[in-house]
Write a structure and sequence with these properties.
heterodimer; A: Rossmann fold; five-stranded mixed beta sheet; 14 strands; B: 324 residues; alpha/beta; Rossmann fold; six-stranded parallel beta sheet
Chain lengths: 354, 324
């Protein structure tokens, strides 16, 4: 902990944090290369790959044809043959074109080679939200990816984790799916200047509380922290837990928090049916069935597709107000008057189109 | 290599593949080798010819019909048979069975049971070799059915646009499982299309391993000289059913007459005759055959006696675990 405190940090955006991780890691290890549709174009994946082409050249940084399946297989072939590829997808939805490679090949290659071959492969994929992204530019799918043995899955929420988790993913000799959130790209926070890995499989408590635990992932962490701040004014102490890593999972951290508060809301940024929230709820019941003061509540995407128009999209997602109301219900509190609250949204900075 | 040595090498590989599979046929119905087998019988000239041309310092990928590839590249049968019997002494401790063999130490980096799915791996592996300044060529074998998959064209395009040292070998038996070319293709000539890519194209319908060997050398030379991929289109006839060890002429999608035409130019028979051309004595041929027969029979017996993997094997290597 002391060591952490001494680390020099700088306030930078999530986007810059990703970019810094890529620069520092590619500088450290020549076997790392990054590729994918639009990686080296003028927009550079929302700025996250800026400067890489100029620094490391076209062999290590390149845009590709629109051939997602072959390009993930290409990454696998390179990974088992001495390189450390980073394959980028500007939307998670596009990664679905490569599902055969991901599930049938990438995930099982180490196992299928009886450990003779390793797959140090990173897949960065970005979750879209807002400004009409609609149902083919907004999926997160962490539950789906984490369901497959052999894949590690992380969802950075803070700029420091965007950097730290990507560094860990790059250094890991297993395939890691890194699910970034487009809405978080402009968030700024203190980030270690040096390349410090955030360990895979370690969650974090973003706000300490005693009355109720909210476990949230990706953008839902933002909603949870906002909700916790508002509830604090009413004397409700919410603990917000960000697992960060879907697999491997820091089950201990989650269980400890829920054991302490006795109440738990899971706000997973995904559908709930057969989802990560169901996995967490089960584990909580398995470990704490007699210690829970109320049943575990799950919130997530509406069980349909994400619509384009704003009024419907608002209904699709779980926001801070939904979480405040859920906490009130759980703790049997009167509904707060929220008419004077302004819920800052990072989306206010996002004018689209992509 | 002089011609005699080449023919001997080709024959050794082809005969090993044929003998191994004949022994499988003999024992498969005992229901002890519980793994879906897609037999190589009929494609021996391709595996012997291409793999002899590739030599030791090359990397290969295959498809689920790859007994031939594994045997041609490794020439070992102990681990092979143990894998077929699901034993701990197998190539992959019984985890892969017949359809996903590999042997990285022999350059065989992967075989997959999903059609076409190793093709992009070969392209990525070739990219890594250029990146790391290694002079290896990466070869990928696949059937004509794989050409129906989008990933074949995606991979060919990437390899050609980047000028990567990949040898694409299409083993064309005319059927994707049981569906003939005529029912699957909206175009006339595969090779004419591939010729439009930045890729050298070679083709033959010969079952003569020596001819395939020579054509493979040309293809390899073209990759090295022109710094671009090559595509080798080789016709052959699958002797047995798509999966399993029996004939399937009764099914009606192909005729025994067709088979008998191909059998006249059986690749193993052709090579055996060639041994006489290059003045290998009958006695030496018989001795070589008996040595291989013995090797294969002993491997099968060892495999039968070997133990199954311990239950503790189940979870091993799901993830790579860093050791401090």
């Amino acid at each position: 902990m002391n060591k952490q405190l001494k680390l020099a940090t700088k306030k930078i955006s999530y986007r810059t944090a990703i970019n810094q991780a890529l620069h520092q890691e590619m500088e450290r290890d020549n076997s790392i290369f990054t590729y994918g549709i639009d990686v080296a174009d003028h927009k550079r994946i929302f700025g996250s790959t800026t400067g890489l082409l100029e620094t490391f050249g076209p062999q290590r940084v390149f845009s590709t044809p629109l051939s997602e399946e072959a390009l993930l297989g290409f990454g696998l072939g390179a990974a088992i043959n001495g390189l450390r590829p980073i394959n980028v997808h500007i939307r998670v939805d596009f990664l679905l074109l490569a599902i055969n490679q991901l599930v049938n090949m990438v995930a099982s290659y180490h196992y299928g080679s009886d450990g003779k071959l390793q797959v140090p492969l990173v897949i960065r994929a970005i979750i879209g939200k807002g400004w009409g992204q609609s149902y083919q530019h907004s999926k997160s799918l962490q539950s789906f990816f984490a369901h497959i043995p052999g894949l590690k899955v992380v969802m950075p929420t803070t700029p420091a984790d965007a950097k730290g988790l990507l560094i860990s993913a790059i250094r890991d000799n297993n395939p890691v799916v890194v699910l970034e959130h487009r809405m978080l790209y402009d968030v700024e926070d203190e980030v270690p200047i040096k390349p410090i890995p955030t360990p895979l499989g370690k969650g974090q408590i973003l706000k300490i509380g005693t009355d109720i635990t909210i476990i949230a992932t990706s953008y839902s962490v933002v909603s949870a922290v906002q909700a916790a701040k508002v509830l604090e004014k009413q004397g409700v102490s919410v603990e917000v837990v960000d697992p960060r890593s879907i697999f491997p999972l820091d089950e201990n951290l989650i269980i400890k928090s829920v054991e302490k508060t006795g109440h738990c809301i899971i706000a997973d940024y995904d559908w709930t049916f057969c989802g990560f929230s169901a996995e967490l709820a089960t584990r909580i019941y398995e470990k704490l069935s007699h210690k829970l003061k109320s049943e575990v509540m799950r919130l997530g995407f509406a069980p349909t597709h994400c619509p384009s128009t704003r009024p419907l999209e608002n209904e699709f997602y779980t926001d801070s107000i939904d979480l405040i109301r859920a906490v009130e219900k759980k703790l049997k509190l009167k509904e707060m008057d929220l008419s004077q609250e302004t819920f800052y949204s990072y989306e206010n900075q996002f004018r689209g189109p992509f | 290599m002089n011609r005699k040595k080449i023919i001997l090498n080709l024959f050794k590989k082809a005969y090993l593949i044929r003998t191994t599979e004949e022994l499988i046929i003999k024992h498969y119905d005992n229901n002890e080798m519980k793994t879906p087998m897609h037999m190589s019988m009929g494609e021996e000239a391709i595996m012997a010819g291409v793999c002899t041309a590739l030599g030791k310092n090359s990397q290969t990928f295959g498809t689920y019909r790859s007994h031939g590839l594994y045997l041609a590249v490794t020439e070992e049968t102990d681990k092979f048979f143990a894998e077929m019997y699901g034993k701990v002494t197998g190539v992959l401790k019984g985890k892969s069975g017949s359809m996903h063999l590999l042997s990285p130490s022999d350059g065989l980096l992967g075989i997959s049971a999903v059609v076409g799915s190793t093709i992009p791996l070969a392209v990525g592996a070739a990219f890594a070799n250029i990146y790391l300044k290694k002079k290896q060529i990466t070869t990928v074998f696949f059937g004509d059915g794989a050409v129906d998959e989008g990933v074949f064209w995606e991979s060919l395009n990437i390899a050609c646009s980047k000028g990567l040292p990949v040898l694409f070998v299409c083993e064309d038996n005319g059927y994707a499982v049981h569906t003939p070319l005529s029912a699957r293709r909206g175009y006339k000539s595969l090779t004419n299309i591939v010729k439009q890519y930045s890729c050298s194209v070679f083709e033959t319908d010969s079952t003569d391993a020596e001819q395939i060997y020579k054509l493979s050398l040309e293809a390899i030379n073209s990759i090295q000289k022109k710094h671009r991929p090559a595509f080798l289109h080789l016709k052959y006839y699958r002797y047995l059913e798509h999966v399993g060890v029996h004939e399937d002429f009764h099914a009606g999608y192909r005729t025994k007459l067709e088979f008998m035409e191909w059998q006249k130019k059986d690749p193993v028979k052709l090579l055996r005759n060639k041994l006489k051309d290059v003045k290998v004595k009958d006695m030496d041929i018989i001795e070589l055959e008996e040595r291989i027969n013995k090797q294969v029979e002993e491997s099968l017996q060892k495999a039968k006696k070997a133990p199954f993997p311990d239950p503790s094997e189940l979870l091993k290597n799901t993830f790579y675990e860093q050791t401090a």
